[in-house]
Design a protein that fits this description.
- Belongs to the folate receptor family.
- With 250 residues, the protein is mostly helical.
- It is 35% helix and 8% strand.
- The strands form four sheets. Strands 1-2 form a two-stranded antiparallel sheet.
- A hairpin with a 4-residue loop joins strand 1 (68-69) and strand 2 (74-75).
Length: 250
């Protein structure tokens, strides 16, 4: 047996543990995120649940609530009519994305955040974070009668006036036309940042995009569960490089 096999086997044993620890309580490398999570003296409205341990600042939390958020110059009112309940869900989703330190298992390198392009400084994004069934259902129900003009919000907007406008020929129709199911809304709007989970709240197997602060953060345990079974992309890459290097030495 080659001399390097014991070393490779040890790496295979240790790396998943390292990965699990690395994926917990972290902020993604992104334009508006802090480098490490920590408490904030104050966060704005829908971002308050993360005040004790946040990846966002007060300024980011305030900007998340503006009708045309300077975070990405994206307007939810591109078709004019957006019901208050629908707007609230989107703000909660933005707060969740910008503030949560429990998205580590779903952080991936580069790519779009779901807007036209990856903003400057956007080194990482979240992919397929599993939202609880009720989160998607309530979001969809409260947005059914609001209006949009696209099912894919990733690109194809008219940015000539500095914010997103419906492209020529696109019709403003109820959300239910472009998003026939709750899963469509959860998954398509931000280009698969979220995934509609069949699991329900308090199952310990799905994430809540908002929670009552007094009841504690249920996403901590969910992140720990997924982190224990999925090495991070950085460590997976490290393992691959080490394996190739050891094979070369043989």
């Amino acid at each position: 047996m080659a001399w390097w096999w014991p070393l490779l086997l040890e790496l295979l044993t240790v790396l998943p543990t390292w990965a699990g620890d690395e994926l917990l309580n972290i902020c993604m490398n992104a334009k508006h995120h802090k480098r490490v999570p920590g408490p904030e003296d104050k966060l704005y409205e829908e971002c308050i649940p993360w005040k004790d341990n946040a990846c966002c600042t007060l300024t980011t939390s305030w900007e998340a609530h503006l009708d045309v958020s300077p975070l990405y110059n994206f307007s939810l009112f591109h078709c004019g009519l957006l019901m208050p309940g629908c707007r609230k869900h989107f703000i909660q989703a933005i707060c969740f994305y910008e503030c949560s330190p429990n998205l580590g298992p779903w952080i991936r390198p580069g790519g779009s955040l779901g807007w036209e392009e990856a903003p400057s400084g956007q080194g990482e994004r979240v992919v397929n974070a599993p939202l609880c069934q009720e989160d998607c259902e309530e979001w969809w129900e409260d947005c059914r009668m609001s209006y949009t003009c696209k099912s894919n919000w990733r690109g194809g907007w008219d940015w000539n006036q500095g914010k997103n406008r419906c492209p020529k020929g696109a019709q403003c129709l109820p959300f239910s036309h472009y998003f026939p199911t709750p899963a469509d809304l959860c998954e398509k709007t931000w280009s698969n940042s979220f995934k509609a989970s069949p699991e329900r709240r308090n199952s310990g197997q799905c994430l809540q995009k908002w929670f009552e602060p007094a009841q504690g953060n249920p996403n901590v345990a969910v992140a720990r569960l997924f982190a224990s079974s999925a090495p991070s992309w950085e460590l997976s890459y490290t393992l691959m490089v080490c394996s190739v290097f050891l094979l070369f030495l043989s």
